[in-house]
Amino acid sequence: MDTDSTAVADSADENTPAGAAPVAARSTATGSDVVIETRNLSKIYKDFWGRKKVHALKSLDIEVRKGEIFGLLGPNGSGKSTTIKLILGLLFPTSGRVLVFDKDATETKKNEQIGYLPEESYLYQFLNAEETLDFYGRLFDMSGRQRKQRVEELLTLVGLQGARHRQLREYSKGMRRRVGLAQALINDPDLILLDEPTTGLDPIGIREMKDLILALRDQGKTILLCSHQLGDVQDVCDRVAILHQGELKELGRVTDLLKVQDVTEVHASGLSEEAKNEIREVIARHGADLKSMDNPTATMEDLFLNIVRESEARPGARRVSATASDEPAADEPAADEPAADEPAADEPAADASAADGSQAGSDKS
Ligand SMILES: Nc1ncnc2c1ncn2[C@@H]1O[C@H](COP(=O)(O)OP(=O)(O)OP(=O)(O)O)[C@@H](O)[C@H]1O
What we know:
Its EC number is 3.6.3.-. The chain is an alpha/beta fold.
């Protein structure tokens, strides 16, 4: 964490994220840039007797452009899976159209250019990763040589080379998610649909999955991502659409939608106290309101990943940081008066290092 960095934020009035108005941004993309286009797309699920049951999607107009990561967000039941099924041609629209690569979504041939990671991958539990990928390669009519090369590339990409010969029933949730992704990429698709790709992954797996998604975009792939993990969406998506009860409520670039208006943020390192005081004076002189001027905090994800990497680099080393709030308050028992849940003086201390306020990196093994 860069503790020598200072963030300044001032504000003249109440701060709300920009873009509260519905559907802030409309497409300006040219036809050839558009990979998915929905036009006035509606889907009504009907019951056995043909009576209307659920209006799952209402006049949806979105465009997903070549080479972008597009997030499709919304609460449970808002129509995300219905949209994906319509894009794949697994459902017919009630009205409107979906075009994928300029072809009607019901033309299943276009699916050869699409990779799909469903929310739950149903893979054969008694095959290992290599056999699984080889099987899906055969479905795409890949030759033996092509399959061998592609399986090798994908196992490396998703970090499963070491587990390639283990049956999938022995895999952890995170490993299953990775083999699911590898399976979705077997045909080297141009468009990748990812439904909750980070489900079941630990923070390291989540970071790797996000890096992988960004790397795929850098290779020129187009990615449509559905996720309830809004932090992950914010980290990787270029644009998002937010659905609610089948209706499009917001559409735009993530950076534009999240920008807080009328607030200025300045990050500087190496500022002296004198310089900070001058900044305070300047803000006051201009009649602005200083909201905060402090060291920024890192994210919990960064903290967690740093600890894990440090532990891997130095097995057995302990890292215990004492913050002011960990330290006993003046009215708490002194060190020579053990509290009820602390060991008496003649009992062995369970964790001496934790109490001594050792700083990061102290070796207590
Ligand atoms: N086969 C179906 N028959 C009837 N109604 C359905 C069917 N599939 C989905 N629905 C309904 O359509 C609406 C949209 O469902 P959908 O699965 O598209 O939402 P979602 O946004 O993907 O939800 P989640 O976040 O829970 O996956 C919901 O009210 C759902 O109950």
